[in-house]
Prior knowledge:
Radius of gyration: 18 Å
Number of strands: 0
Shape: globular
Order of helices and strands: HHHHHHHH
Distance between the termini: 11 Å
Structural class: mainly alpha
Number of helices: 8
Strand content: under 5%
Amino acid sequence: YPNAMATGISRGLSICSTVIIPTLYPFMLLAGLLASAPLCSRTGSVMDSIMRRLFGLPGCCWTAILLSLVGGYPAGAIAIAQLRQRGDIGDEERRRMTVFCMNGGPGFIVSTVGAGLLGSVQAGLMLYGAQVAVSVGLGIALGRGHRRKPQNIHTVPTARKPVAQVIADTCTALLPICGFVVLGAPGLA
């Protein structure tokens, strides 16, 4: 079925260029830039007591959690990966932070799912609110027993990434997402 396959792949590429990349790229890039910015590590010390009481996580995690809730799972995953690469968090904290990376961003949930698929912005807002509530609730529950301040996790501190590297990493992270869309699109044709 070469015609159906060609039509499906063309549709998948169109979805990537009109929906996936415009909605994910800005937040993923912002996540990478913020996670490597010195401002985040400075504000992390201010947020440390709040983050420890709520989620049992160090203060540096607040930007990754916020980006995940606002930008969706790819943005949060990129920020968490950078925190781990820098040695700001350990593997145990990284695993617990994945509960914040199961969300779609509000732009996708409210506009695409709510307004577009369900025909209701209010339904989209309710879905978005529900997923944020589940993520935060799971984060609080998984933080039990981890609220004490751990020893220094920094094992191999790394320098701040250059902007060009953050852009390259963002593009690299988008490729598999678009690949899966293109792979699945022939079935939609």
